[in-house]
Specification:
The protein has 316 residues and is an alpha/beta fold. It has helices at residues 8-23, 28-35, 39-52, 67-77, 95-113, 126-134, 161-170, 186-193, 196-202, 224-228, 231-239, 260-263, 271-275, 290-297, 309-315; strands at 81-85, 119-122, 142-145, 174-175, 210-217, 244-246, 249-251, 279-284, 304-308. The longest helix has 19 residues, at 95-113.
Length: 316
């Protein structure tokens, strides 16, 4: 039986086939016709070349992206978008830098997936503020603010700067919400929802096609809602199982909204409205929010996640 000898003709022909297939995008059938062989022989030749090291495929990503964790997260949770930042070599105490990196990567993702005539919805929060600062390009789209801002900070231009910046870069119409996220009672919230500026934004919730939403942990500095509540309310909700907050709504570990009375006091897109949005991206910032991120994913609201390696490893 004649053994195959990998002589010079075989080597240069295999290299040519590999160039056609991997670099020029030609099909195995097209390559077979060009070289006068069967497509099965083309397939066997390429497979052997990979196995023997004649062809080496190299996948290069920017150092900040973790391809393995991103793919594992996408597969595990059935996500359309999953981006994990490799944060394991960073200073764990530099939370501001971590938030900026998360914002930058999310800004790049929006530049990639937002198309003309999309309606982009953004919640308010430090992570989204970081996203706004990092945005440099965006398709023409309408931008809608999806919730009010924390009562602990002034309701002014800087509070909705991310929404305005996104609209400026996209050259689209903007619908900001100049109102608090959390009101003292349900009556005050109802009255505020009827104010002209707020009404304009709220009416656009149903038009949103892509949204970016953050998740808060149930602890100091981890959630704007937690920080705005009284000590008594914080402890009461904790005893009831609250461990996370999404769009102003406290969640338990199973992703259930278990504080309906608080929902009546907030100015924010509802979960029912979010479920109608084709693409909802979760920004999960920092391993201290890993439990909260797990709860958020259990709501079924999200088909995309941008997070860091610490959170991803915990979710997996």
């Amino acid at each position: 039986m004649r053994t195959h000898h990998t002589g010079p003709e075989y080597l240069v022909q295999t290299a040519a086939m590999a160039k056609r297939f991997y670099l020029e995008g030609k099909s195995k059938m097209e390559i077979a016709e060009e070289f006068g062989i069967s497509r099965f022989k083309v397939a066997r030749t390429l497979e052997s070349a990979l196995r023997d090291g004649l062809i080496r495929l190299e996948i290069r990503l920017p150092a900040e992206l973790d391809a393995g964790l991103s793919d594992a997260l996408r597969t595990r949770y059935g996500l359309r978008h999953a981006i994990v930042i490799d944060s394991r070599h960073e200073d764990p105490d530099d939370t501001a830098q971590a938030t900026r990196r998360l914002g930058a990567v999310t800004a790049d993702l929006l530049a990639e997936i937002v198309t003309e005539n999309d309606v982009l919805g953004l919640v308010w929060g430090p992570e989204v503020e970081a996203l706004g600062l990092e945005l440099t390009t965006l398709a023409r789209c309408t931008v809608v603010q999806l919730c009010g801002v924390t009562p602990l900070r002034p309701v002014n231009v800087s509070a909705v700067e991310a929404v305005r910046r996104a609209a400026t870069i996209s050259r689209g119409v903007v619908y900001p919400i100049y109102a608090p996220l959390l009101l003292p009672d349900a009556t005050a919230a109802r009255m505020l929802r009827e104010q002209p500026g707020v009404v304009d934004a709220v009416r656009r919730f149903g038009d949103v096609t892509k949204a970016v939403v953050t998740v808060g942990g149930w602890g100091p500095g981890l959630s704007t809602v937690f920080d705005a509540l009284s000590d008594a309310d914080r402890e009461d909700y904790r005893r009831r199982g609250v461990c996370a907050e999404v769009a102003g709504r406290p969640l338990d570990a199973e992703g259930r909204d278990i504080v309906p009375e608080l929902t009546e006091r907030i100015i924010a897109i509802s979960f029912d409205e979010l479920r109608q949005v084709p693409d909802v991206i979760l920004m999960a910032d920092g391993v201290e929010r890993a439990t909260a991120a797990a709860a958020a994913l259990k709501t079924g609201l999200f088909n995309g996640v941008v997070t860091d390696a610490g959170v991803a490893e915990s979710l997996l």
